[in-house]
Specification:
rod-shaped, six-stranded antiparallel sheet, alpha+beta, 713 residues, 33% helix
Length: 713
């Protein structure tokens, strides 16, 4: 029989009594395993590796089971059997040997398989050696690599978390970052709790998974026996490395956490400028203990979390202050207006990371006026800060005062512009003021650089009402251009007037006219009720976002429940203004129709026209025309024209060829009664007309498209 592979390992003739010196010098033992007889011979060095004396080994492989664990024998047998089956010439394997003191040591064997001429395996000769040092170094390297990978992963999580915290503005934002998939849960934590210090107590702002809340811990005292309280009191972290330690140190808390299968926990103080602002707890369910590196990472991360939380707390405090200031500047309540349904809304908008999400210079106001009239105001002070809000509050108050004093709309706007110019500020403001007589529906509008109003008709259609405007408040006084044209329009019963600031219509990269068209479409398809419509418009603005505030005022003229007992319309007519008389006629026509005097509309308009013309021609000053309803035994409509001249009108007899002198004769003929009254340094010429038609039967048309008549200044 020729042994194939015998040259792979040559053994001396007197082996195993005298093993190869080279193998002995390398602390290797050798063996010869006869596969036919099963005899396994080992030299002294090999027996020493298995920690066997010569009298403890009987050359049988089964005897080695006292030194090799069963699992290792099974794995070694599988390796040898596979090599024999595959026709391999050699094999190698690592396995553990249990020494007589019970310790395990790594061993390596390398065997050569000798076969006969038929290829049948007949003998295995090989070596065994102690591999403890070799594998120990390898394990150490592997452990180091594993630790470095874990440290790298933890550092990456810290970097991601810190970067995400940079964008957190509120406390809830911080909590959301920590609970995010890139947050602390990547460090292995299965549950997170966060508490903030408030007046000697700790208030939870984030708790673990659903069902993990511990009763009575929502607000706890700092001196109580809880790990979070200890971390705050001592300014030191509390690491709990086993369930047994948790149960022993905190017996009152552990029963509530036992069902969460907590195996370890870390409670860390959140410290800013040597002062605790709260604490954070991390609960783990798949680990015991913390390495020094893990502890250092958690402590370092808590510093970044504490800074973010303090920044968020400051932001929320200042935001509350801003909200309070904004609410103080806006009207606390909107008065109930007989004959109208009113809805107002305000939405703040944030810019960057500033506090202007809830503060700005936009405002609205509704001002009850004498004679059943009402003033509606919408405005926008330049800027988004507390100064803009403060200017807005002052401007709103003075504009309300000027309107309540009874000044015409143009005068109200001009005086407000002067006030803002003289105020110690560099801010300007846009504004729109609309004065409505709800008994007639006549609306007088002045505009200072603001966007035009919108009107929705009872048929659902909505359109922009163009009103000639002046410069923004503050600028008009600076440039000496205090003229504010007055546009007159008419609201039918059921019509809705909408005033808003540009934050509702302006969009980045879009034209203002396109924004207004979009808004008209929203109003057309919106709810009929003004409150629901206001909510819908603000919801759209919220969905769209944007970097500007939004103020909104909706006023719907109600259909009259019964005829009104009185009312008044007034228009200022400046000399030399070709549009002034047109505006006055339009106002008179609207009032006559609304108050049920349609059958005498031509007479009233002609008489009023004569009175206005006389005042303008013979006094060389402005005139104020007033149309009012008088009640008593009979309803009468009265036209008054007031001027600043004390000279009384004189009736003249006109000749056949005269083109003047017939004015007062015409007034006397058309009116039921007329007269003159002294008014301070001037006079009032008036005429009255009996009204027999009820207002409910009156038929009056829609609004006129924003004519211009100059108001007094």
């Amino acid at each position: 029989m020729a042994d194939r592979g015998a040259s792979a390992l040559s053994l001396p003739d007197d082996w195993p009594d005298h093993p190869d010196p080279i193998l002995a010098l390398n602390r290797m033992g050798s063996f010869d395993w006869d596969l036919d007889t099963g005899a396994l011979q080992m030299d002294a060095q090999a027996r020493d590796i298995f920690d066997l004396r010569a009298d403890e080994f009987d050359d049988r492989p089964e005897t080695l089971s006292s030194r090799v664990p069963t699992a290792e024998i099974a794995r070694l047998d599988t390796t040898v059997a596979q090599a024999v089956k595959d026709g391999s010439e050699n094999y190698g394997a690592y396995f553990r040997v249990r020494r007589r003191d019970g310790t395990l040591r790594w061993t390596h064997t390398h065997g050569y398989i000798l076969r006969d001429d038929t290829g049948r395996p007949v003998r295995i000769i090989g070596i065994v050696r102690d591999a403890t040092q070799e594998l120990g170094a390898s394990e150490a390297r592997q452990q180091q690599v594993t630790q470095e990978d874990a440290l790298r992963e933890q550092t990456n999580v810290v970097q991601l978390t810190t970067a995400a915290l940079a964008h957190a503005r509120t406390v809830q934002d911080v909590i959301d970052v920590l609970k995010d998939t890139h947050g602390l849960t990547h460090l292995g934590a299965t549950s997170l709790v966060v508490g903030l210090v408030e007046a000697g107590h700790i208030r939870l702002v984030a708790e673990g998974p659903v069902g993990s809340f511990v009763p009575g811990t929502r607000v706890t005292r700092i001196d109580e026996q809880y790990p979070m309280s200890e971390a705050v009191r001592t300014l030191s972290p509390r690491f709990i490395e086993s369930p047994e330690e948790f149960a022993e140190r905190y017996p009152g808390l552990w029963p509530h956490l036992a069902d969460l299968h907590v195996t370890s926990a870390a409670y860390l103080p959140l410290i800013v400028q040597a002062r605790p602002i709260g604490a954070m707890g991390l609960l783990y369910s798949d680990r015991r203990g913390f390495t020094p590196e893990e502890r250092n990472i958690l402590v370092a991360l808590c510093s970044s979390i504490a800074q973010s939380l303090q920044r968020a707390m400051f932001y929320e405090q200042e935001m509350d202050l801003a909200q309070g200031l904004q609410q103080a500047m806006l009207p606390r309540t909107i008065p109930s207006v007989p004959g109208a349904d009113v809805a107002v809304r305000y939405r703040g908008a944030g810019i960057g990371g500033s506090l202007s999400r809830d503060i700005g210079g936009d405002w609205y106001d509704l001002i009850p006026l004498p004679g059943g009239r009402v003033g509606a105001v919408i405005g926008d002070v330049q800027g988004h800060d507390t100064h803009a809000a403060a200017v807005m509050g002052q401007l709103r108050i003075v504009l309300r005062a000027y309107a309540a004093e009874g000044h015409p709309p143009a005068t109200v706007m001009a005086r407000a512009s002067v006030f803002l110019h003289e105020l110690d500020t560099d801010r300007s403001a846009t504004c729109l003021y609309a004065e409505a007589d709800l008994s007639t529906g006549v609306l007088q509008v002045v505009r200072a650089g603001h966007i035009d109003p919108l009107v929705r008709r009872t048929d659902g259609s909505c359109r922009r009402v163009f009103v000639a405007g002046g410069l923004p408040l503050g600028l008009s006084a600076e440039f000496g251009r205090l003229e504010y044209p007055v546009g007159t329009m008419e609201l039918d019963p059921g019509d809705v007037l909408m005033l808003c600031t540009d934050g509702l219509v302006e969009q980045p990269g879009a034209d203002l006219d396109d924004g207004i068209e979009t808004l008209c479409a929203l109003i057309t398809t919106g709810p009929e009720d003004v409150r629901d419509l206001a909510d819908r418009l603000i919801d759209v603005a919220e969905e769209r976002g944007g970097d500007d505030d939004v103020a909104l005022l909706l006023l719907r003229r109600r259909p009259p429940d019964s005829p009104r007992s009185g009312g008044r319309l007034q228009q200022h007519v400046a000399p030399g203004d070709p549009e002034a008389l047109t505006e006055a006629r339009r106002m008179i026509r609207a009032g006559v129709g609304a108050w049920g005097a349609g059958d005498r509309a031509d007479e009233i308009e002609l008489a009023a026209d004569e009175l206005i013309t006389n005042a303008l021609m013979h006094t060389e000053g402005a005139a104020v025309v007033t149309l009012r309803v008088l009640t008593g035994t009979e309803r009468r409509l009265r036209v008054e024209v007031t001027d600043s001249s004390s000279a009384l009108p004189r009736r003249r007899e006109a000749g056949e060829s005269c083109v003047s002198g017939r004015g007062l004769l015409l007034v006397e003929t058309l009116t039921d009664v007329w007269g003159v009254e002294a008014r301070g340094g001037g006079k009032c010429v008036w005429g009255e007309f009996a009204v027999t038609t009820s207002p409910a039967a009156a038929d009056h048309g829609h609004d006129a498209d924003g004519g211009t008549g100059h108001g007094s200044r």
